[in-house]
Amino acid sequence: MDTHIIGFENYMTDKKSASDNTVSSYKSDISHFIRFIQESGIDDVRLINKTNVMAYIYDLQKKDRSRATISRNAAALRVYFGYLNYEGIIKDNPAEDIETPKVVKKMPPVLSLKEVEKLLAQPDTEDSKGIRDKAMLEVLYATGMRVTELITLKTSDVNIDMEFLICRSDKKSRLIPLGSKAIDALKAYMNDVRKNMIKNEDETMLFVNCFGNPMTRQGFWKIIKEYASKAEIKTTITPHVLRHSFAFHLIENGADLESVQEMMGHSDIATTQMYAKINKSKLKEVYNKTHPRA
Predict the structure, then answer these.
(1) How far is C-alpha 33 from the geometric centre of its chain's CA atoms?
(2) Looking at residue 265, what is its pLDDT?
(3) What DSSP string describes the chain?
(4) What does the pLDDT read at residue 133?
C-alpha cells in the first residue's frame, strides 16, 4: 500500500494544487492509516471498506485526538481514496460519507497594538541581521501574509516606488499595499544589506539567511521567537499570530471585511468574519468594564 504514497503526493500537488503544508500533513495522516490497516491484517487497498475507515476514526477518538486532527484525517482519507479511484485502483471511495465530529473554531490569539510595537522595536538596526529582521517583521505585520508567502517573496514582487507587493500563493496572486514603516524597512534592507548577504548574485529570493541562502520557515520562526522573548510578550507568538493581529487591527480601526478578505487571501469571507467577532467580543468586554450601569 505504501507504493501509492508517492503517486498520491504528486496528485495532491498537481491535480489538487494543495499547499506544501497540506501535502505533508495528509501524507503523514495516510501513513498512520496504512499502518493501522496493516496491523488489522489488510495489505491490499482494494480490500479496505467503510467499516475499516470508521474503525480508524474511532481509534483516533479513543486516543483522545482533537476534533481538528480527526477531521483532517478524514479529509485526507477522502482525498487519498479519491486518488485511488481516479487511478482506477479502486471502484468506490470508502471514506466518502464518513461522519466526523464538528470542529469548533477557536478564536485566534492576537496581539495588542502596544505588543506589536514592542515586538517590531526589538531588531537592532545597527547591524545587517537586525535590518533584515526588521524588514521581515514589518512586512509580515503590514501585509498579513502567511509565513510561507513571506519567505518565498522575490525581489521582483516588491514595488517600492508604488508602495505595494505581489503575494503569490498556491491558488492565485494578490496585490497588497505597503505602509510607510514597511517601505522604510525594506529600503534599508534592499539598498544597504541584501547585496552583502546573498551568496549568489543571481539569487531572486528577497529574504536570505546569514549564509546567503533563502530564508526557511524554521529560520524565521526562531527569529520571531527570539524577539518575542526580548520584548517580554506573554502571548505565545508565531508568524500566524502577526497575521491574525494584522486583520484584527484593520477591522478594529474600521476596515471593511471585503478589503481584509482580499488582502488576507481568504477564499471564503466567513473566515474573515471571525476577526469581526473578536472585535465585537472586545467591545463588549470594554463596555462591561467601563460603563457605570453595565
Answers:
(1) 25
(2) 66
(3) -GGGHHHHHHHHHHTS---HHHHHHHHHHHHHHHHHHHHTT---GGG--HHHHHHHHHHHHHTT--HHHHHHHHHHHHHHHHHHHHTTS-SS-TTTT---PPP-PPPPP---HHHHHHHHT-S-TTSHHHHHHHHHHHHHHHH---HHHHHT-BGGGEETTTTEEEEE-SS-EEEEE--HHHHHHHHHHHHHTHHHH-SSTT--BS-B-TTSSBP-HHHHHHHHHHHHHHTT--S---HHHHHHHHHHHHHHTT--HHHHHHHHT-SSHHHHHHHHHHHHHHHHHHHHHH-TT-
(4) 97
- Residue entry with cell 521582483: 156
Which amino acid, residue 43? D
C-alpha cell at 99: 461522519
What is the rounded distance in angstroms from the CA atom of residue 64 to the CA atom of residue 77?
19
Neighbours of 191 (CB within 10 A): 10
Strand pairing report for 158-159 and 173-177:
unpaired
Widest pairwise Cα distance in the chain: 69
Cell of 73: 484525517
Q: Order of strands across the sheet with 158-159?
A: 158-159, 164-168, 173-177
d(CA 121, CA 146) in angstroms, rounded, equals 21
- Catalytic (active-site) positions: 171, 243, 266, 275
Cβ count within 10 A of residue 163: 14
The CA distance from 138 to 179, in Å, is 9
Q: What is the pLDDT of residues 37-57, one digit of tens each?
A: 999 999 899 999 999 999 999
Sites in the chain below the pLDDT cut of 70:
1-2, 101-108, 170-171, 252-294
Q: What number of CA atoms fall less than 13 Å from residue 119's CA on the CB side? A: 29
